[in-house]
Design goal:
- The chain starts with a strand and ends with a strand.
- The chain has about 400 residues and is of the alpha+beta class.
- A hairpin with an 8-residue loop joins β3 (about 100-105) and β4 (about 110-115).
- Strands 1-2-19-18-17-3-4 form a 7-stranded mixed β-sheet, with helices on both faces. A 5-stranded antiparallel β-sheet has the order 12-16-13-14-15.
- It has helices at about 10-15, 40-65, 80-90, 125-135, 150-160, 170-175, 190-205, 240-245, 250-260, 270-275, 280-285, and strands at about 5, 30-40, 100-105, 110-115, 180-185, 210, 220, 225, 230, 235, 265, 295-300, 305-310, 320-325, 330, 340-345, 360-365, 370-375, 385-390.
- α5 (about 150-160) crosses α7.
Length: about 400
């Protein structure tokens, strides 16, 4: 049984004062739980080690996919294949951050990979800022968390310039290069806009010259990516790569040419689409069969096993089905992702509380594992799931 600690919730007024405006769900309940999950240092270390190992495995699997031209297997749109290869080959295309979703780890069961949100992960604001503020507001030691996410992303912004060399050399390198970052998200989504602006704030703290612009107002040309006639070497876009490929084919062509001609560096890089595809779960199982961090996954239904059917690209639990070992359907959600290829992953129940709520661990990765948070909800976690912070106690 999962261990919880009740706290005084942060007020809506406070949350809004720090830019967190999506604090209330459509049913008028609070999105941020007033309880935190209690974990031990050993459990935190296990999540840390598992996430670091999984990232290394994903890198090996990505190289395998590229070497063997398995893009179609992963449902990768054909018009992004070349730009994925280019971004993978050149180290300047640096992966800023991603989030692993994990089962187990708290209930006596082993940690298991559910999927990797590598391109446009949600819950950044919640993990880096809100759960820290929740402890502080309750008079608890805010450092009693597995949570260095803010500082880790700050350091990774430095690595956009220094790459794998000493990040203390950032200022020296930046003075020579002077590369700027343009941050973009879509209109009409407070969560995405404020999350993007949080990342912009972190980059500005590091020392970059930055700007923000809605994606539909960003200017693209053969010279690069610009706003108000100012060219930006880096472009951070909070829009999924698969959406660019499917809905913005012309843009996919433009950014491919810009990357090939070394006119722009896009964050997160296009190769994160390989990580994002749930088809990679099947590749991982092929490369690391029966690995203790993996669940059996196939492109065909598993025989005589309870399993989860989910699309290669999908979000917020849409178009997911739980199928029993006798092939009877236990649960299914609707959505807009039914046209993507499906994968079949062995079912593992999430840790639960006394009320029967399920808890999925999310561990952010930015050069290394750096921040833990939880989502609480039903067997299939959807857009009505709650964010739950944590505290490390022994």
């Amino acid at each position: 049984m999962i261990q919880l600690k009740k706290l005084q919730p942060l007020t809506d007024q406070y949350l809004e004062s720090i830019g967190f405006t999506w604090h209330t769900d459509s049913d008028t309940t609070s999105y941020v739980s007033d309880e935190v999950v209690t974990i031990t240092e050993a459990q935190a270390e296990a999540f840390y080690n598992a996430t670091n190992e999984l990232y290394d495995m994903y890198c090996e699997a990505a190289q395998y996919v590229i070497d063997n031209e398995l893009f179609h297997e992963l449902n990768i749109p054909f018009n992004l294949v070349e730009v994925i290869k280019k971004s993978w080959e050149n180290d300047v295309h640096w992966h800023l951050y991603g989030r692993f979703d994990l089962a187990g780890g708290l209930d006596g069961k082993p940690i298991k990979l559910i999927e990797f949100n590598a391109d446009t992960p949600t819950a950044l604001y919640e993990t880096a800022i809100i759960q820290w503020a929740l402890l502080k507001a309750n008079g608890l030691d805010e450092s009693s968390q597995f949570n260095s996410l803010y500082e880790a992303i700050k350091d990774n912004f430095k690595r956009l310039i220094t790459l794998d060399t000493d990040i203390d050399q950032f200022e020296e390198h930046y003075k020579k290069l002077g590369w700027k970052i343009l941050f973009s998200s879509i209109r009409g989504n407070d969560e995405e806009e404020n999350t993007t602006k949080l990342l912009q704030h972190i980059a500005s703290e590091v020392g970059y010259e930055t700007a923000y612009e809605y994606i539909d107002k960003v200017e693209f040309s053969n010279d690069g990516i610009s706003k108000d006639e100012t060219l930006y070497e880096f472009w951070f876009k909070l829009i999924p790569w698969e959406d660019i490929a499917i809905d913005e084919g012309e843009l996919a062509l433009i950014v491919t040419e810009l990357i090939e001609n070394q006119k722009a560096i896009i964050i997160n890089p296009s190769y994160t689409l390989l990580f994002q595809s749930k088809g990679m779960l099947k590749i991982l199982w092929d490369l690391y069969p029966n690995h203790p961090l993996l669940l059996e996954t196939s492109f065909e239904p598993l025989e005589n096993k309870k399993q989860v059917e989910k699309p290669c690209f999908g979000r917020e639990g849409a178009n997911v089905a739980i199928v029993n070992s006798d092939n009877s359907l236990e649960l299914k959600t609707d959505g807009v992702y039914e046209n993507f290829k499906m994968v079949y992953q062995e079912y593992m129940q999430y840790p639960q509380d006394s009320a029967g709520n399920h808890y999925q661990a999310g561990v952010f990765y930015a050069y290394e594992a750096c921040g833990l948070g939880f989502r609480k909800g039903g067997q299939i976690l959807d857009n009505m799931s709650k964010f739950v912070g944590h505290i490390v106690e022994n």
